[in-house]
Structure formats: structure tokens, C-alpha cells
Amino acid sequence: MKADSHRSVFICVYLWLAITPFARASPSFASDIAPIVYEKCAPCHHPGEAAPFSLLTYQDVKKRAAQIAAVTRTGFMPPWLPEKGYGDFAGERRLTAAEIATVAAWVRDGAPVGPADKIPPAPDFTASELGDSWQLGPPDLVLEAGGSFDLPASGRDIYWNFIFTPRLTARRWVRAIEIRPGQPRVVHHANLLVDRAGSAHLQEAAPGKGFPGMDLVITRSPFDPEGNFLFWKPGNTPHVEPDGFAWRLDPGNELVLNMHLQPSGKPEEVRPSIGLYFTDKPQTKFPLLVQLEDDEALDIPAGVRDFPISDDFKLPLDVDILAVYPHAHYLGKLLEAWATLPGDSHKGAGAKKWLVRIPNWDQNWQAVYYYREPLFLPKDSVIHMRYHYDNSAENPRNPNHPPRRVRAGNQATDEMGHLWLQILPHDARDHRRELQEAVMRHRLEKNPNDPVAHMNLGAILLSRLDPQAALTELRAAERLEPNRPEVRNMLGLALATLNRNAEAIPQFERALKARPDYASARFNLATAQAKTGKIDEAIENLRKVLAANPDDPYAKQRLSELISSPSSQLPATSH
Fold first, then answer.
1. How far is CA 14 from the centre of its chain?
2. pLDDT tens, 267-325?
3. Are 319 and 432 in contact (CB under 8 A)?
4. How many helices (H) and strands (E) does the chain have?
5. Are 24 and 90 contacting, i.e. CB atoms less than 8 angstroms apart?
6. 407: exposed, middle or buried (C-beta count within 10 Å: 0-12, 13-18, 19+)?
7. How confident is the model over 181-200, as a mean pLDDT?
8. Rounded CA gap, 369 and 423, in Å?
9. Range with the lowest mean pLDDT among 1-5, 93-97, 360-364, 526-530?
């Protein structure tokens, strides 16, 4: 009986403990809230950023406590679009269920501060000489745009390009950039490009003024460096490249910041700056930015609630996917991307690997998402892009009331459907050209009359030492766009590589007629002239190249060779 009595007491105590919550101290700012806010909120909510208020002190946070509890409970803040379980991304700002509950409990209990000496230090966003703050600390080099742009109070979105001149004296490797937009509230997003040929200045009406345009092409590709996302969006944390992924910046190179500006209701003066962070570790890894898109299909009738588009790309080699950047405008709703693996049915054929899934797209919070670990995809995997658009009155982000027909275009009220991937060939060799060739052939499968795709494919084949195949593609580009100087220059280079210099010369001359300052075409013309014995004309053209760019090492070398040995036969290489 005594043992049974003890057992009954034990059971009663156990049941009481099981149903009675333990007393727990209220969450405090010092112990519980500050770590959450400083990690997930402060990168946007600090002076100099686009967020409307700062959250760097207890007083800042307590003043907004009820609002913070409300927006975290609904998932509106912190903004994080990818759905959990459909890609494992670094730097997630999504709060866990426990963190959301902690915030709610803290607010419910009166937002206590806790021991003042236990409050962790706030993030240090070091102020620069320009008065802006830098998330990565003081940059190695700060650049300011040559001039400002006066954004009108109202009207259509504007795409404006600012030129920056680093004035380097030696090659540097860039591990990170931080873009300070000048007026964050009017800048929707921005992309940074490298101008290695000095061609951007040709588009300026006056030095330092910049120039308009969205689809900026500095060289043959709309992105240089062609393997790195140099992207800015309000609230983004700057990306630091791992060792081996830094991109090069050479003396004479310039930077072009392509900015999407939106009028705010009052005139604004926009003058951005850029912070560059260098490393002594050169590039040894060579990723490529690959785009899937289906803008040709974007013709969305008014009122349609589910308008799908798609694209599919088959990988020509084993790769690692490092990052993903989905892009659409206001009508985007569900954005999905995944890969279907190859192989027989006993080895996972048809298995799906998710790249990203965004069930409730909001272009105001778009971002580049880097995977926590590279996502391996074997050769012949097929990457799928499936985007859905809602052009109904029920879409709260629809900019048109009532809805109207929407097509593809550059304005925010138009639409886009793009999926950018940062792809690294899996083995140690540089396979970018092989991957680029597959991308261009895929573009031509969708649109055989794409002159830029034919031109780019010709350039890739030329770089892969297949000038005859390159000539076929460049002839196709010539038929579609005969007055484009880049096509004429590349066509002439293909002919010169085949030792058909007499045929190449008229192509270079036509490129120069369309663009007299086209230094590459003039250099290539001089080389072809030297090969055909027109030494005096070649020397004259090389001197013109050097008059425009006195430090051009290739033109200096060629001119020296011709003057010292006029009869020498020069190789037909590109400038």
C-alpha cells in the first residue's frame, strides 16, 4: 500500500507539472529583442538607408513596438520573398515562429528594456566623408558620380546611367561593392557594369552628365563582369565575393551605374556614390550569369487572373548554381524555378530540384538570393522557369484601375519575366564559352531572327577558334541588322581570321562610318591594312587610335612594329 501511495503522489505531481506552464521572465530588449532587430531589421533601418525610421536604439524600437509586432506577425516584415523549403539561401531575414512569438510577448508585457549593461552593441554603420554609412565598413576606394541628375516630380519611370572613373594605376581585384544611391526613396534598383573600352562616354551629351537608357550594352554582353551580380536594391546587404570570385578592375576602366528612378511627387537631385573593397586574391573561379526569359509571350489581357509564361534551358555540362535573381513587375504573382535531373528511372530520372519559389511576388522586395551551399546539377539537367501574372482588379499591386492590357516593356507599369542564374562549371576549367554558346543557341531556338543573339554567337564561336561557323552567324546578323557597327566589326574580324583581309577591310570601314570613334574597329582595320600591304594607311589609323587613347598598349605595340619593320606580317588579332 505504501508503494502504491508514493506512486499516486508521483503521478499527481507529474500531471500537475505537465499541465502547468513554468513561470518565465518576460522577454527583454537586452536579452531577446535587440539580437533579432540588429540582425534582421537594422540593415535597412538605420540613417542613410531607404527605410523611413531607424531601429538602432531601445528608444527607437520601443516607440515602434506595436507596429513591429503587427508587421512581424503577418510576415510583412522583414521582407523575404522565397518560400521556405524551396531553396536554402544564405542571409535569410525571415523570422522564425519562436522569434515572432518573442516579439509579441515582449510588446504584450510592456516592452521592458532589461539590464542596460546587457544590451549588445548596435551594428556600426561607419560614416564616410560623403555623409553616407557603409555596411561593410570604410571602403578602400570611394567614387562619386561625375554629376547629378534632376529627377522631375512626376511622370514616367526614368532609367539613368552615371559614369564613375576609378583612375587606377594598377590592376585591382574587387571583392565587394556598396552602392549609395544618393536618394534611396526614388531609386527602385540599380546595376553596376564595367566599361573596359571607354564607350559609355560616347553616349553622354556633356562630360559628367550621364545618359538615359535601360538596356545598356557596354561590350558584347549586357553584363561585364559577366559572372557577378553587381546589383543594388533598397534593403539589400552588400555581397562579399568568396576567395577566387573577385572581379578585375584595370587602369582605364570605368564603371557605369544603371539606375531605375521613380518620381516621388517632388523634384529630387540624385547623385550616387560607390564604395569599392579590394582583395589581393585574384580570380580563379569563373561563373557566368545566365538568363531565362519569355518576354515575347507577355501580352496580358485586362482582367486575366492567371497568365503563365515559361522557359526551359538544358545544361550542356555539369554545373553548380550559386545564386538566383527572379524578376517581374507589378503583375507578377507566383514565380517558380526548378531543375529536372537526367538519367534512367533507377537513378532519379525526372527528379525535381527546386531553385526558388515565390508564392506572393512583390517587386519592391526583389533581391539576388545566394545559396548557402552551391546547388549541383549534372549535364543535361533542364532548368524550368514558370511565372504567373495576375492582371485582375483583385490584385492589390495592379497599377491600373481598372485593369488594362499589359505587354512586355521597360516601364514599371509594363511587365517582364526574367530568371537570372549565377552558374559555375563544376570542374576547375573555364567553360564559360561553352555555356554561353548553349545560351545563345537556346535564344535562337526561341527567336531565329534575333540579330544580337546571332552576333553574340558569332563572337563566341570566334573566341572558340571556329571562324567559319562564326562567319555563318555573323552573316545572319548582318542580314537582320546591316547598319549595326558591332556586327560589321565582328564580321570583319571573322574574315580577317580566315585570312580574307581584303574582304574584311570594307566591313571595318562600314563600322567606322556608323561610329567614327569605334576604337576596336579602327585597330582591326589597321591590322587588316598591314596584312594587305597598306602600311601607310595602317600607321595613320593606329595613330588615330592613340590620339583618342594615348595609353592603349596594343596600338602602341602595333605602331612600333610597323614603323620598325614595315614589311612584317602582323597576326589578325582583335583589339
1. 58
2. 999 999 999 999 999 999 999 999 999 999 999 999 999 999 999 999 999 999 999 99
3. no
4. 13, 23
5. no
6. exposed
7. 84
8. 13
9. 1-5
Which residues share a beta bridge with 292? 419
- Rounded-to-integer distance, Cα 260 and Cα 263, Å: 10
Looking at residue 233, its pLDDT comes to: 83
Q: Mean pLDDT throughout 363-392?
A: 95
All residues at 6 or more sequence positions from 243 whose CB lies less than 8 Å from its CB, including other chains: 279, 281
Q: Provide, rounded to the nearest whole percent, the portion of the chain with pLDDT above 70.
A: 89
Strand partners, 199: none
Distances in Å between the Cα of 81 and the Cα atoms of 190, 228, 308, 341, 488 are 19, 22, 19, 25, 44
Nearest Cα to Cα of residue 317 among 434, 429, 421, 422: 434
CB of 321 closer than 8 Å to CB of 421: yes
- Whether the per-residue pLDDT at 23 is higher than 60: the answer is no
DSSP E strands in 332-481: the ranges are: 332-340, 352-358, 369-377, 382-389, 406-407, 418-425
pLDDT of residue 566: 54
Distance between CA atoms of 32 and 39, rounded to whole angstroms? 12
CB 159 within 8 A of CB 259: yes
> CA 353 to CA 527: how far, in whole Å?
50
In Å, how far are 64, 210, 267, 471 from 149, measured between CA atoms? 35, 8, 10, 42
Is residue 549 a contact partner of residue 199, using CB atoms and an 8 Å limit? no
**Which run of H or of E encompasses 527?**
helix 519-531
* pLDDT category of residue 125 using cuts at 50, 70 and 90: low
- Enter the C-alpha cell of residue 167: 583612375
Residues in the chain: 575
Task: Cell numbers for 371, please give them.
Answer: 545559396
Residues 377, 101 contacting (CB under 8 angstroms):
no
Flag whether pLDDT at 451 surpasses 90: yes
Burial grade of 21 (CB within 10 A; 0-12, 13-18, 19 or more): exposed
Cα–Cα dist 557/536, whole Å: 16
CB of 378 closer than 8 Å to CB of 345? no
pLDDT higher than threshold 50 for residue 219: no
The H or E element containing residue 39 is helix 34-40
Q: Decide if pLDDT at 169 tops 80.
A: yes
**DSSP class of 382:** E
Distance CA 124, CA 47 (A): 11
For 213-240, what is the mean pLDDT?
A: 73
Weakest-pLDDT range from 13-17, 197-201, 403-407, 570-574: 13-17
pLDDT at 18 over 50: no
- In 3-state terms, what secondary structure has residue 253? coil
Instruction: Please measure the distance between the N-terminal and C-terminal CA atoms of the chain and give it in whole angstroms.
Output: 101
Residue type, position 516, single letter: P
Q: Is the separation of the CB atoms in 230 and 193 below 8 Å? A: yes
Angle at the Cα of 406 (from 400 to 412), degrees rounded to 5? 70
